[in-house]
Amino acid sequence: MAEAKISNKRNRPVLPGRQLLLAGGALGAIGYGVWQAGRVRFNPKINGKLQFEGLLEQVEVIRDRMGVPHIFAGNQSDLFFAQGFVQAQDRFWQLELQRRLAAGRLAEIFGPAALEADRFLRRVELYRQAEKSYNWILQHEDASPLQRFAEGVNAFLALNKLPLEVTLLRYKPEPWTPVDSLGWSNVMTFGQSSNFWTELARAEVVRAAGPELAAKLEPWPQPGHPLTVPPEANYEGVDFETILAEYSRLVDLLGLLRQGGGSNNWVVDGSKSVTGKPLLSNDPHPALQMPGVFYAMHLDAPGYSATGATVPGLPGVIIGHNGRIAWGFTNTMADFQDAFIEKTDPLDPRRYLYKGEWLEFESHIEEIRVKGASTVRQEQFRSVHGPIISEFSTGGSVAADGGSVQGAPVAMRWSVYDQPFSLEGLLAVGRATNWQEFRAALKRCPFPSLNFVYADTEGNIGYQFTGLIPIRAQGLGLLPVPGHSGEYDWTGYIPFEELPGSYNPASHFLLTANNRIESKNYPYHLSADYANGARAERIRQLLTEKEKLSVADFERMQADLLSINGLRFARLLVDLEFSDAFERRAQALLTTWDGRLTAESVAGCIYEVMLGKLLRLVLEPQLGRVATNHYLGVLEGGFSAMTSLYSLAGPHFMSYIEKDDKSILPEGLTWEEALRQALKEAVRWLRQELGDDVRGWEWGKIHTITFSHFLGIKPPLDRVFNRGPYPAGGDSDTIFQTAYAFKPDQYTVNGGTPAWRMIVDLADPDNSKWGITGGQNGSPFNAHYSDMIEPWLRVEFFPMPFSRHKLTPNLIAGVLLLEKKG
Predict the structure, then answer these.
(1) Quick one: which H or E segment has residue 80?
(2) Which residues contact 155 (CB under 8 A, 6 or more apart)?
(3) Stated pTM of the model
(4) pLDDT digits (tens, 9 = 90+) for 188-237
(5) 337 and which of 152, 195, 587, 635 could share a cystine (Cβ 3.0–4.6 Å)?
(6) What's the pLDDT tens digit per position in 295-343?
(7) 685 class by beta-carbon count within 10 Å (0-12 exposed, 13-18 middle, 19+ buried)
């Protein structure tokens, strides 16, 4: 597929890093010269030999034609050393950016433009928690995989073949440490954890609309009044908007923290498979970036042999198979974060009230080094509930109820602060050979909270919900709560044995798509922040429409673009009457649409534009622009926060229309009038943007994907680093997900989309397949930087050989031997 030539400025993606590059000096001026030098310098050595101190035996690194390294080592110590070395060869800039993001150390290389991001990141304490986890691992687990991985990264640094980005920014990277690896794990968990921000967004809606309308707008189904404001909570004095704005600017600045649109996975047992053995599929949907979140690897040594997706910076395989079992995961959307509003002492704001006693905030000083400017000293605070995320005054009088001064302390309660990361748990998943070992490994993996599906060569399939999910003394964690009384504290965590799970179900299949998992009788609260069930329902339809399924069927499922919610919405227009010819044409196209949201779909384009117009037509007169944006998950930078409200808003409104319930409408408006007005506005906008030829109103003309790099903002670096835009089908509700924020009149893909695709055939694991966004290598001069983009758009897969003899000469691109020095 050729790149789409789209000249309209509206379609240019909001790329991360704009402020940072503008602060970086004359990067663009040196871009062309670096480009020329990079054709030789920035490609990894993939043939021949390299010698390193510390290796015990020779390690063989075979790279296949797609750039996937297959590492064969005689022991695990050398295996993880080689994994660190090879990841650094292909993705060191990604490793560097990730650790600086975790540590809040961006301003050291980007200057003052990154200071605000660093200040926020330090308050979240991701790196401090990583340090605690590493100290725990040193005492309770084998830390050598982390240490050997770090030594491998540092062996690459010693070669002094640093990536282009480091050359442009003109600094010398520090050695990699085990804590750097754990820090990135915390960032990934943070990126999957949308509940804290959803609580703040709900609070803004309550403040703008009042509890009664806010309750009706709340899509989470539960008995009684679903949005009861905690009686002692006073939201008038808490600056939620500023906290959300800070987070928004961080997301816009970095891109890496954009909330993903979820994931899909499913598995069938042998009775539903043409092979007689299980088939397993997984496609996680983190935020789109270049290079992508995942890196394909095959690791083989005595005691650890697995192939699949790795995360640059962490040892081991996190999604894949080991020849005996296969596994994949999706985000559970579990609620393991809460916002607590602390009540400060009016005479001494460094103290806060807790259970009738005045306690002093824990505090420490963070020093933030800033390139080209003075070091900034920032005091950070903690209450019994967690770090204070908001800014608040400590030098003057603050009202005891937190109600008269904006900036009252808001603490983040997060299960990540309570338990260390277990490296052994992560590696034990890849070593498991049966369901019992697999579940035992998952029990040691408290975060992120994930829906795992499982299959093995014996024919078994299973599902397990994981994570450290809190039990609350009262409330469901939907809204920020007062911290002073202790009445909303967490009292413990749901025991792992009581989390949802299933093994060899009677249905002969299992699936998850960020949808609600638990039954009505489940005794614990897991979340109110699920995605709507459209993707899950479509997967279920496709799993049940045939008696037996094949790998090819699974490939077609991952490419599926049917929109269940689009068809549901189209039915609402059948009986409406329009006088304008363009509006009648649009109505006819929608009501006869087959629901397939391809890039060429005209009806699908009308649906998407009309839905956005309808939501804002109803919400903005009642909530205002800011609270409407928060309800729809739109951050100021235009990226989706992936709040539950974002996913559920459309279907929630449709249920009101279907019942003709006008209670959420502005006074005097009917649903018939609202739908007419929304279609009228959509048609007007489409004519203005795409012309009067309705046949040209194709979804892919406004819904495009650009694979954007952190530094690809300024010419000529955009031409070096970025790829696209490409026309795209789908939306957040299709199996092939291409999520976008509900920002007015902007439809660029900027949310979750499949960053890794995998299908495992348990009858013959060598018959398994995979694909990623972008490519394996992080250098824009490398053949594997973007070679997978067009196959990815077409949903094409690549072979995933596991047995050594399957790596035939025609599949091999290079063989590198790592040997002991001396």
Answers:
(1) helix 76-103
(2) 52, 81, 84, 85
(3) 0.93
(4) 888 777 788 888 888 888 889 998 899 899 887 654 445 667 877 777 77
(5) 195
(6) 999 999 999 999 999 999 999 999 999 999 999 999 999 999 999 999 9
(7) middle
